[in-house]
Amino acid sequence: MKKNLLNFQYEELVKEFANLGLERYRVDQVYDWVFKKKVFDFSSMTNLSKEHRRQLSENFEVSIPKLLDVQVSMVDKTTKFLWELGDGRTIESVLLFHPDRVTACISTQVGCPVKCAFCATGQSGYDRNLSAGEIVAQVLAMELNRKVNIGNIVYMGMGEPLLNYDEVVKSVKILHNPKGKGISMRRITISTVGIPERIVQLAHDLPEVKLAISLHAPTNYKRDQIVPLNKKYSVEEIIHAAKEYQRLTKNRVTFEYVLIREFNDFADDAEKLAELLRGIGAYVNLIPVNPVSGIDGIVLGRPHHWALERFKEILEKHNIECEIRREKGTDIDAACGQLRRRHLSGAGKFGQRG
């Protein structure tokens, strides 16, 4: 069985090539073809001899997912991809376009076991973790498809990254390697709903990577209702881990807060959140719940504009930097899990668009 070349870190691949009698610089050549030129067929790597190409083709593959669907926003060019993996399972990735950069939002699991109330991914179930190679391949596939150079990566797609910790860390190191994509650690963000022991471990293993914590409520009573995992890891445990992470890394921590009308958007919620974040160098993203979100047939309402502004003003009064996130891709299935969920339900005809 062929090995997926993207599952190996550079030094691991040097050893694998050595077992075939290939020198270290052959890894550099292959890395250049794969990560720089987006050539994934060994037979096309013309600066390798025919014998070396044959050897590599017999032992390795560069496994890139098959594109099932793509949607492009007419508003801001946000591009949503649905990919099919080698085993037929599907995942999503998103490209976000900014004036000075292109950001990839990538998945770490097929589905998600966390099942947050407002997230379409969790509602479609959970199958398995992605390998490091499957995570890395999303970046390469999007660059090839859209002819762009991705400079920032957020692990905010399908799945809970810290429940697939080892493969996520490995994929970060692969994407960071200067011989490959060479993405700066400071341009990579890992988003988590909050796995306290992994947050602290991340501070040791990848201290330069940015951390975003999806909090969504300032009390256990409310968070239990929308984030089931909170019953295992309390708000207090997560905040304690965030403080320890910050002590170790000196990095500011981003907190994601999805606002749901007349649930967690009250002035009292803002005051409690400000108290909770006291002593943390924090940045808060305020996110109106997605308009198509719902669970068990109950649609979760978007907050009124005045409630959003009130929430923001209260946090700022307590000297907490925050912003109301400007939504991207509102005219497509841009929220995580929607496109895959529609595909699994068999709704609509799929094919490449845009």
UniProtKB/TrEMBL annotation:
Record keywords: 4Fe-4S, Cytoplasm, Disulfide bond, Iron, Iron-sulfur, Metal-binding, Methyltransferase, rRNA processing, S-adenosyl-L-methionine, Transferase, tRNA processing
One Gene Ontology CC term in the entry: cytoplasm
Pfam families: Radical_SAM (PF04055), RlmN_N (PF21016)
GO terms classed as biological process: rRNA base methylation; tRNA methylation
Annotated positions binding [4Fe-4S] cluster: C112, C116, C119
Note on how the cofactor is bound: Binds 1 [4Fe-4S] cluster. The cluster is coordinated with 3 cysteines and an exchangeable S-adenosyl-L-methionine.
Binding site for S-adenosyl-L-methionine: G159, E160, S191, S214, L215, H216, N290
Class in the EC hierarchy, top level: transferase
Domain of life: Bacteria
Active site: residue positions: E92 (proton acceptor), C336 (s-methylcysteine intermediate)
SUPFAM superfamilies per UniProt: Radical SAM enzymes (SSF102114)
Localization, UniProt: Cytoplasm
Co-factor(s): [4Fe-4S] cluster
UniProt EC number: 2.1.1.192
Extra facts: Reaction proceeds by a ping-pong mechanism involving intermediate methylation of a conserved cysteine residue.
Function, in words: Specifically methylates position 2 of adenine 2503 in 23S rRNA and position 2 of adenine 37 in tRNAs.
Entry's family note: Belongs to the radical SAM superfamily. RlmN family.
PANTHER family in the record: 23S RRNA METHYLTRANSFERASE, RADICAL SAM CORE DOMAIN-CONTAINING PROTEIN
Protein name per Swiss-Prot or TrEMBL: Probable dual-specificity RNA methyltransferase RlmN
Lineage, top ranks: Bacteria, Thermotogati, Thermotogota, Thermotogae, Thermotogales
